[in-house]
Amino acid sequence: MSSGVSTDTTAPGRVPLLAILGVFAKIGLMSFGGALSGWMHRAIVVRRRWMAEEDFLSGLALGQIMPGANVANLSLYIGQRLRGGIGAVAALLGMLLPPMIVVLALGMLYERVAAILWLHRFIDGVAAAAIGLTILDPAAAVRDGGRAALADGAGGNMRDARQHRARLAGLASRRCVTIRCSDC
Q1: 151-165, pLDDT tens digit by residue?
Q2: Can you give the C-alpha Rg of the chain in angstroms?
Q3: What is the residue extent of each domain of the chain?
Q4: Could you report the per-residue pLDDT of 11-22, keeping only the tens digit for each?
């Protein structure tokens, strides 16, 4: 049984350092909120075939049991397997430096616009809405027994999604939300 992925790997010395740096920089910049291991798998194993599936999964398992961030550990592992110690440094720098530069640039931008009063009010409103949605979404799921989230298999369908949004909108318009549990 074949997984559809080539098990031929490029010799560790053949992958250019700039290519490693570029791939990990793109992953670091484009992914947000997790699932980086999946992005790495697609970029390293599926698209570029730099590493065998089994080798990647071994690195993933090792990265999860080692202390520290899983994606940093996996980046180090992949870089080391591709080009040794210098490859590990290139992969980790590619993963961490570009997002750090973006955060610093946003911090400098915020410093320039920090005195604009209407912007503070706008951000406060967005934060309040995010908090409300964070609270209401699980409350609605508990209220309807999770039916909207689990309807029609794992993903639900469009009608159920619209009904779920309508229920959330109805909850958002109330002043008090009551959460009922059938086991209580």
Answers
A1: 544 444 555 555 555
A2: 23
A3: 12-112, 117-173
A4: 445 899 999 999
